[in-house]
Design brief:
Elements lengths: L9 H18 L6 H8 L19 H23 L2 H8 L2 H41 L3 H18 L3 E9 L2 E11 L3 E8 L4 E8 L7 H11 L7 E2 L9 E2 L8 H20 L4 H22 L4 H7 L3 E4 L6 E6 L10 H10 L10 E9 L19 H6 L6 E6 L13 E6 L7 E14 H8 L22 H6 L8 E3 L9 E6 L6 E9 L4 H20 L8 H15 L15 E7 L6 E7 L6 E8 L6 E7 L19 H13 L7 H11 L2 H23 L27
C-alpha cells in the first residue's frame, strides 16, 4: 500500500498518474517508452496483455481504477477551483486598469509551472543516472550509499518512517550504518558496514509473539550480495575498503515485496481496529494443525499429504507469513528424502528445503469491496479444534461453518472440517490474497472458478473481457517458444531404428490466463485453490512433455546425412536412398482443459489408429488413461464426459473383451495409468505402448506361423495431419 500522496497541484497529480501507469506497465512486463512500444508492435507474436490484464494478474485492477478516479477527480477539483477563483474572475470580468496586471501575473504563473515541470523531469533523470552509476560501482562505500538510499526510498513509499545512524559494533572493526525502519507494529534494523556488506537484519514486532528469526533471514538473504564473497584489499585496518565483484547484485525486487507484505499489515493496523498480524498468524496455525491431522491419519506419509492433502505448510519461506507447498515436478521429487523433509518442516528450517515447490503465500492487500471477517484477539484460530468440533455451537462475533467441500471419497480427511466464520466488516477495505510462486498458466474456465472465491462484484465477469484476436492460446502459452513451429521431434531410444515421435497440437483457440494472485475471503478456500491448481499443473506438465524436443534442428540434419551415407548406393548405382526409420505423427487435442488430453496416432507395427485418452481427476489431480484402438478418424470421442470421468469398469471390460475377440491389440486401463503415473510423460507412455504392440505382433506372428512382414490389411497413412507414419521419399 503506497504512501498517500501530498499532491496539491495539477502537475503533481499528473506525475502521480504517470507513476501509476509506469508501475503497472512494469508489472505487466510491457514497455514504458515510445521506442520500446514501437518495437513491440513490430513483433509477430508479442506478449499479449490479455493474459495478465485481469483481476488475478500482477496488478490490482480494481485499486488501479480507484486511484485513477481519485486523481482525475482531484485534478478536476483544482481546475474548477481556479475557474471560480478570484484570479480567473478578475481576468475575465475585472476593470480594465487591473486586467493587464492580472494577465501578466497569470502568464508568470504558467511560465513558472512549465519551468518547474522541466526541472522536475531533469531532476528525475539525474537521480536515475546517479542510481545506475552507484549500482554499477565496485566501490564498497558507494555501494553502501546506494543500498541505504534504495531501502529508504522503498520504506517511505510504503508509509514507514526511516532513521539513519552511524556507530560501531563489537563484531565489526569498521564503521557501521544502522537504518531503522519503523511502523506501529514492526521495526526493521539494517546494519551495513562502510564497505557495503550487510551485517545484520533484525525485524522486531510488538507484541513479541510474532517474533521469528526466519523473517530476519529472509530479508537479509534479499539484501546480501549474490556473489557470495568480497575482494579485500591488503589493508586490514579499520579504514580498509572492500571492492565488490563485478557481478555483485542484490535482490531489491524481492526485498521490496517482502517489506511491502509487512508494511501493508502495519498500515492496516494503524487504519482499522483489527489485529491483522494476529489473523495472519491464526491462518498459519490452522495450516499447521491440518498438516498434523493429515500426517496422523496417513502414518506420517508426508508425500501423500503433499500430493493429495492440504499441502505442506511453511512459514516465512517466500513472503513473510504462512505459505503452502502444493505441487512440484515429478522429476524434482525422484531423489527427495521425505523423512529429511519432514524433519526440516518440523524444525522450521526453510533454508534446508531445496525442492522447487509451487507455493501459495498468504498475505493481505487493499480491496475496493471487502467481504472478509476477522478474529478477535482472544481467538487463536479459524479452525475448530477436535474438542470444539463436538461442543461449540455458536459465536457472538460470527458463525460456524461445516466445510463439506473438504471431504470426499479420495481425500485424507473423512470428516468435514468446522470453521469459525467471523462477521464481515464492509468498512474495512482489505482482503486476504494468495500469491502464487511461480505464476501459473490456467484455462479461463478455471480462472473464473478461482476468481469466484473472492465474492467481489465484477471479478467473474471481467475475466472474459479485453480479448485480442492475436492472443496466444493456452496451448501456445504452454509451449512457450516459436509458435510458428508445426512439429516437435522426440526420440527416446538410442538404437538406429528408434521410433521418432513427431508431435503437433490442435490449434483451436482455448482461452488462457496467467495467474499471479487469488483474493479470497476465508482460510478454508485455500484448499479449493490447491485442488484446482494441482489439476491444472498436472495438465500443464503432461501437455508440455510432448513438446520438449530431444534433438536440435542441426542434430537432426547431421543424423539424416549420416544415415544416407551409411545406406550406400542402390542396385542401379545411384545415390538415391530412403530413411526407413518409423516416424509416428501424434496429434494432441485438449477438448476441455484441464480435464482431458487426447493423443491420436497410427501404430507403425499394428498399422491401426490409436487414441490415448487421459482424464485428470479434479479432486485428486491424478490422471486416468484409456487406449482406444482400431477406430476410424471420423468416429466421435469415446468415453469423454463433461464431468471428466468414464462410465467405468463394466463398460471397459466389455470393450476390451470385444477388442480381444476381434484380434486387436489392447492394454488394460489400470496398467496404462500406472505407467503414466510412474513417468509423468506422454512420449514415454507412447513408447511403452509401441514396444508393447511390437511384442504383441511378434508373438501373434509366431503363433500364426507366418514368415513375412506383419500386415493387418489396413493402408498406412502417410499424412502427418492424419496421425500417420511419415515415409521419406527417394532423393
Amino acid at each position: 500500500m503506497p504512501n498517500s500522496s501530498n499532491a496539491t497541484t495539477v502537475q503533481e497529480h499528473l506525475r502521480d498518474l504517470h507513476t501509476l501507469v509506469e508501475d503497472s506497465l512494469k508489472q505487466w512486463n510491457l514497455s514504458t517508452n515510445a521506442t520500446a512500444a514501437t518495437a513491440l508492435v513490430g513483433q509477430a507474436h508479442p506478449n499479449r496483455l490479455s493474459h495478465e490484464l485481469h483481476p488475478l494478474g500482477p496488478v490490482q485492477v480494481g485499486m488501479l481504477q480507484k486511484d485513477f478516479k481519485e486523481k482525475i477527480a482531484a485534478i478536476r477539483a483544482i481546475c474548477l477551483s481556479f475557474a471560480q477563483g478570484p484570479l480567473h474572475q478578475s481576468i475575465n470580468v475585472g476593470d480594465a486598469s487591473s486586467t493587464s496586471a492580472f494577465k501578466k501575473y497569470s502568464t508568470l504563473l504558467k511560465e513558472e509551472t512549465q519551468l518547474e515541470e522541466a526541472l522536475s523531469s531533469v531532476k528525475a533523470s539525474m537521480t536515475q543516472c546517479q542510481n545506475t552509476l552507484r549500482a554499477a560501482s565496485q566501490d564498497g562505500g558507494i555501494k553502501k550509499d546506494h543500498l541505504l538510499g534504495s531501502i529508504k526510498d522503498m520504506a517511505t513509499g510504503l508509509g514507514l518512517e526511516c532513521y539513519l545512524d552511524t556507530g560501531s559494533r563489537p563484531y565489526s572493526a569498521l564503521p557501521v550504518s544502522i537504518l531503522t525502519i519503523g511502523g506501529i507494529v514492526i521495526v526493521v534494523d539494517i546494519e551495513v558496514e562502510s564497505t557495503g556488506a550487510i551485517l545484520r537484519v533484525k525485524v522486531s514486532f510488538f507484541p513479541e509473539i510474532h517474533q521469528d528469526e526466519r523473517v530476519d533471514r529472509l530479508l537479509a538473504h534479499n539484501l546480501r550480495c549474490k556473489c557470495g564473497k568480497l575482494l579485500q584489499t591488503e589493508d586490514k585496518s579499520a579504514t580498509a575498503n572492500l571492492l565488490h565483484l563485478p557481478d555483485c547484485s542484490r535482490d531489491f525486487d524481492a526485498f521490496s515485496k517482502n517489506l511491502k507484505a509487512l508494511a501493508i499489515l502495519d498500515n492496516f493496523q494503524k487504519k482499522y481496529p483489527v489485529d491483522f498480524f494476529h489473523n495472519i498468524r491464526a491462518m498459519d496455525l490452522d495450516l499447521k494443525e491440518l498438516f498434523r491431522r493429515e500426517m496422523l491419519l496417513t502414518n506420517n506419509n508426508i508425500e501423500r499429504v503433499f500430493k493429495h492433502g492440504h499441502g505442506i505448510p511453511m512459514t516465512h519461506a517466500v513472503l513473510p507469513g504462512p505459505s503452502v507447498a502444493y505441487w512440484a515436478p515429478k522429476s524434482e521429487l525422484l531423489d527427495v528424502s521425505w523423512s529429511a523433509l519432514e524433519m526440516a518442516i518440523e524444525q522450521g528450517a526453510n533454508e534446508k528445503v531445496k525442492i522447487p515447490f509451487h507455493r501459495i503465500s498468504i498475505t493481505m492487500e487493499e480491496s475496493t469491496a471487502s467481504a472478509s471477517g476477522y478474529l478477535p484477539a482472544d481467538r487463536a484460530g479459524f479452525l475448530l479444534s477436535e474438542e470444539e468440533t463436538q461442543t461449540l455451537s455458536g459465536l457472538s462475533y460470527g458463525s460456524i461453518m461445516n466445510d463439506q467441500g473438504s471431504v470426499a471419497a479420495s481425500t485424507i480427511l473423512q470428516q468435514p472440517l468446522r470453521w469459525v466464520v467471523p462477521t464481515a466488516d464492509s468498512t474495512i477495505e482489505a482482503t486476504y490474497v494468495a500469491v502464487l510462486h511461480p505464476p501459473v498458466v490456467v484455462s479461463e474456465d478455471l480462472a473464473k472458478q478461482l476468481a469466484a472465491l473472492s465474492n467481489q462484484a465484477g471479478f467473474n465477469t471481467t475475466m472474459g473481457m479485453n480479448r485480442d484476436q492475436g492472443y496466444l492460446s493456452l496451448q501456445e502459452l504452454l509451449v512457450n517458444r516459436a509458435i510458428e513451429q508445426t512439429q516437435w521431434e522426440i526420440v527416446l531410444d538410442q538404437e538406429p531404428n528408434a521410433v521418432r515421435q513427431l508431435f503437433s497440437f490442435d490449434r483451436t483457440k482455448c482461452e488462457a490466463r496467467l495467474l499471479h494472485r487469488i483474493p479470497f475471503t476465508h482460510i478454508s478456500q485455500v484448499y479449493m485453490c490447491t485442488k484446482l491448481l494441482r489439476q491444472q499443473m498436472v495438465f500443464n506438465a503432461l501437455f508440455q512433455s510432448c513438446f520438449k524436443e530431444t534433438s536440435s534442428p542441426e542434430e537432426i540434419k547431421k543424423r539424416l546425412a549420416a544415415a544416407q551415407s551409411e545406406n550406400g548406393e542402390d542396385n542401379d548405382g545411384s545415390n538415391n536412398t530412403v530413411d526407413t526409420t518409423p516416424e509416428v505423427a501424434i496429434i494432441i487435442q485438449t477438448p476441455q482443459p484441464p480435464n482431458i488430453i487426447l493423443a491420436s496416432f497410427i501404430n507403425p507395427f499394428t498399422e491401426t489408429s490409436m487414441r490415448i485418452e487421459i482424464v485428470i481427476d479434479p479432486v485428486t489431480a491424478s490422471p486416468t488413461v484409456r487406449l482406444d484402438t482400431g477406430m476410424s478418424h471420423s468416429s466421435p470421442m469415446m468415453g469423454f464426459h463433461a464431468g471428466g470421468e468414464f462410465q467405468h469398469m463394466q463398460q471397459q471390460d466389455q470393450y476390451m473383451q470385444h477388442q480381444q475377440q476381434q484380434d486387436v491389440f489392447v492394454v488394460d486401463s489400470i496398467k496404462l495409468t500406472q505407467v503414466l503415473l510412474l513417468c509423468d510423460s506422454i512420449p514415454i507412455l507412447v513408447r511403452w505402448i509401441l514396444k508393447r504392440s511390437f511384442a504383441w505382433m511378434k508373438e501373434r506372428h509366431q503363433l500364426m506361423g507366418r514368415s513375412g512382414s506383419m500386415h493387418s490389411g489396413r493402408r498406412p497413412s502417410s499424412h502427418p495431419e492424419d496421425g500417420g507414419i511419415l515415409k521419406r521419399p527417394r532423393v
